[in-house]
Amino acid sequence: MGQCYANAIRSEKGIKIEKVIGRKIKKLEAFAKTNFIKHYQTNFLNLNKIDAFIIAVSEEQFIKVITKLRILNKPFLCEKPVGINFKQSLLINSLIRKNSKFFVALNRRFFNSVITLKEMIKKNKKPIKIIVNDQQDLLHAKKIKKKQIVINNYMYANSIHLIDLARYLINSTSNDFKIFNIKKKKNFIKSKIIFSNKDQIDYNCKWNVPGRWSIKLNLPNRKFLLKPIEDLLIKKKLKYCKYSKLIDNDDFNFKPGIKKIINSFKLILKSKKPKYNLITMDDYLKSVFLVKCIYEKKN
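Above: the chain's sequence. Below: its structure in token form.
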């Protein structure tokens, strides 16, 4: 992910990467050379003059990094997951709770497809029903040598994307909900979440089975589909048709969502209001809590 952020930063005027920190010197040298970065190091020394930090490290390394950097009390943009599970996310929150510029980069919220859909439904006041089809592959996680503690909590690393997106698209802004696990097996989970305003999320996830992520959003008079999440489809008569009016080409030129995240972070650093709001830790914790409820609730 580091390279994805570097590409977006290099496209923005008024900001640059001053230093890069990592554990392996050869990888650091290659990354610095590719991105025209003069300074790189394997320690956390001499960082007081840095204006802000982007943290994009492995799941189990995040808490170690933020523990060292938090004392600088600078703005942070952090790649998810912020904590390998709900308990660790709460611990991290206790470490940074006085920092008002700590943000989590859940890039799906910033896809052109999602921004367009959010705009289309913003005037709707009636209950929204969302159907989430999720898929997690622990076999692939093992293949790419994820740590076992990460694999055991993989829903916080990956399912967080779709669960956060569903929560973002409904009208309810509170965490006042009831959850029903309709089916819960080793390789499949089906849950229904009903919010106090009658918004509803039907969540389905297959484990170690091929499948494509999707979100279906139903209003009384319109139906939408994100499949893949990068594409917005609208149901017309009996079939879904792709919505082709694009906001811009950001999702083609950069990893989807990242360009807008970096632009928003830059504007915040310059004390300007961004067009797209970044995700605060409080907001992120609501999604993490929903993940916890879905996966840790007993039938």
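The chain has a mean pLDDT of 93.
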